């Protein structure tokens, strides 16, 4: 049986570690310092440790008992490229780099679970502690998989936690099926010849073409996707022109698409390309579409999600199935394409921690750390029971 007081004794060290990581954030595939700290901490408690997995990834292996079953627990390590505005004593010391998504907390909690399980056991099998680089848009999970993650460190199931500021501190949620959206990004480049603004008849108007296309793209979800399906298409940047009396030769449209179903994803991309081709024809411009499906939807295995909720209920009173998936994305999706498992939300909202993820005032709530460590340990006990 998991004893929370055993975890409480780890907290001073874990909080100090988390705040040190917060003060020294590192971007995708640059997590050298963080990976070094993680690797040394695992070695200090007797783990088999492998570094350089998928770039800067670290995997620590802990074995107990005689079972041949194995699971993976994953934490992400990278920070975001924007400026922190918290003014905390442990605020980022690196200008323009910030742990604005709580990966410092995820790393500390997984190290806490590693230490707790190494000291107290209570399971039979193998636990692979996966410290992943480059979650923030660079696909670190995919790179670890390409580097043989699951061949080198076999896992029957894999789990990950993410702090969730939309939920109150002390709560746990997950769900079967989709829990996070796929993430696509597109760049549409419209080209003409450019010319004098007083002589628009002499050149295709790329800005007018862009305006027409933006309007059309914003009808895709409403008119080409069934109302029973969920999807988002957002235009996030339109750029073209430099001065008042010149018609520019090029204009760019940038945006993102979020969905939960591959067939909906296909329909949106096809519609976008059709509309772009139509505008090109009607405005006599050249329109090039670069469409990148960089993260698939995060889809939980139904049985793994039920196991996670049952394990959570043994240590927490506020446990429930999530009402709906989120339109944010997560590269843990790549791991769930390879192995069954579940992605779990750990509530962190309180009076002092109300800022959302990716906000300059965000900070991980250290008060939820004991529950996060306990949940990771509970998942191990549920998946790898002593026999």
Short description:
With 387 residues, the chain is an alpha/beta fold. It has helices at 4-8, 11-23, 32-44, 103-120, 140-146, 149-152, 206-217, 220-224, 262-283, 302-313, 332-338, 369-383; strands at residues 48-53, 57-64, 70-76, 125-132, 157-168, 171-174, 177-180, 183-191, 195-196, 231-239, 246-247, 250-259, 286-295, 298-300, 318-321, 341-349. The protein contains 12 helices and 16 strands.
What is the count of distinct domains? 2
Strand coverage percent = 25-35%
Segments where pLDDT lies below 50 for 5+ residues? Answer: none
Gap between N and C termini, in Å?
Answer: 14 Å
Total strands? 16
Q: Which shape, going by the Cα principal axes?
A: elongated
Q: Within the largest sheet, what's the order of strands?
A: 1-2-4-3-5-16-6-15
Give a quick account of the main beta sheet: strands, pairing sense, barrel closure: 8 strands, mixed
- Helices, by number, come to 12
- Would you state the CATH class of the largest domain? Alpha Beta
Determine the fraction of residues in helical runs and give it as a percent range: 25-40%
The CATH superfamily of the largest domain turns out to be Zn peptidases
Mean model confidence by pLDDT: 96
CATH topology of the largest domain: Aminopeptidase
CATH architectural type of the largest domain: 3-Layer(aba) Sandwich
Given the helix and strand composition, which structural class is it?
alpha/beta
User: What is the CA-atom radius of gyration, in angstroms?
Assistant: 24 Å
């Amino acid at each position: 049986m998991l004893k929370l007081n055993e975890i409480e004794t780890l907290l001073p060290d874990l909080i100090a570690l988390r705040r040190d990581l917060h003060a020294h954030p590192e971007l995708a595939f640059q997590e050298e310092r963080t990976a070094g700290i993680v690797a040394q901490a695992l070695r200090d408690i007797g783990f088999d440790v492998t570094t350089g997995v998928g770039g800067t990834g670290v995997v620590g292996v802990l074995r107990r008992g005689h079972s041949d079953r194995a699971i993976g627990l994953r934490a992400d390590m990278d920070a975001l490229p924007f400026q922190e505005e918290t003014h905390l004593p442990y605020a980022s010391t690196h200008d323009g780099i910030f742990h604005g998504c709580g990966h410092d907390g995820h790393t500390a909690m997984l190290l806490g679970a590693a230490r707790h399980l190494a000291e107290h056991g209570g399971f039979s099998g193998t636990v692979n502690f996966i410290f992943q680089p480059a979650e923030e848009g660079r696909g670190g999970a995919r790179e670890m998989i390409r580097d043989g993650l699951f061949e080198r460190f076999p896992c029957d199931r894999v789990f990950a936690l993410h702090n969730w500021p939309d939920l109150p501190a002390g709560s746990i949620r997950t769900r079967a099926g989709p829990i996070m959206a796929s993430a696509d990004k597109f760049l549409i480049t419209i080209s003409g010849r450019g010319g004098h603004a007083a002589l628009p008849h002499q050149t295709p108007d790329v800005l007018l073409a862009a305006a027409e296309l933006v309007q059309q793209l914003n009808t895709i979800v409403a008119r080409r996707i069934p109302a029973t399906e969920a999807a988002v298409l957002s235009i996030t940047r339109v750029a073209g022109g430099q001065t008042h009396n010149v018609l520019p030769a090029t204009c760019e449209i940038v945006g993102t698409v979020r969905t939960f179903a591959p067939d909906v994803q296909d329909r949106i991309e096809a519609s976008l390309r059709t509309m772009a081709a139509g505008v090109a024809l009607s405005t006599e411009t050249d329109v090039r579409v670069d469409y990148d499906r960089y993260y698939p939807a995060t889809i939980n295995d139904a049985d793994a999600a039920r196991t996670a909720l049952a394990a959570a209920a043994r240590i927490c009173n506020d446990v429930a199935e999530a009402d709906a998936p989120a339109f944010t994305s997560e590269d843990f999706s790549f791991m769930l394409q390879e192995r069954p498992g579940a992605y779990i939300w750990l509530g962190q909202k309180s009076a002092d921690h109300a800022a959302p993820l990716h906000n300059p005032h965000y900070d991980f709530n250290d008060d939820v750390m004991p529950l996060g460590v306990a949940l990771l340990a509970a998942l191990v006990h549920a998946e790898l029971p002593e026999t």
